[in-house]
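Fold it.
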Amino acid sequence: MEVADFLKIYLTFLSLSLLVNLLLLEIIFGSTAIPEYKEEIEQKGWWRFFCEMLLGVSIFYALFSLVGSLVFIKERYEPKKMGLLSVALGLLLEFAFMRPDWVQNIYALRIGGSEAVAVILSSLYWFIPWSVPSYLLNEFILTKE
């Protein structure tokens, strides 16, 4: 595989992750729907929230997309399987390191409707970063070569 091919795959993974997960879900949707984000915006201001979110999430997705790109290059899994691998890794990260409130409630065995909804939404959130790029690469970008 040439460097140009790797960069094409990696930049597809990274750009779609940043566009969908960072811009649409984290910044636009998150700033209006997630109470913690609203509090942070009130405390720090919109511009600082935006810059911190942009930097932190961009670094995370640069690494997450690199892993997804390497898995895609090595295995050429179909989009559904790539999405499920992304969900598995994402939920592992949430339960092991990120530990939002809903994860803490699950650890404490306080499982209710809000935790179930959080798991479903989180699974959808984590499905996107590897499934959509692998679909686009398989259907449109790599088939032209």
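The chain is about 90% helix and 0% strand.
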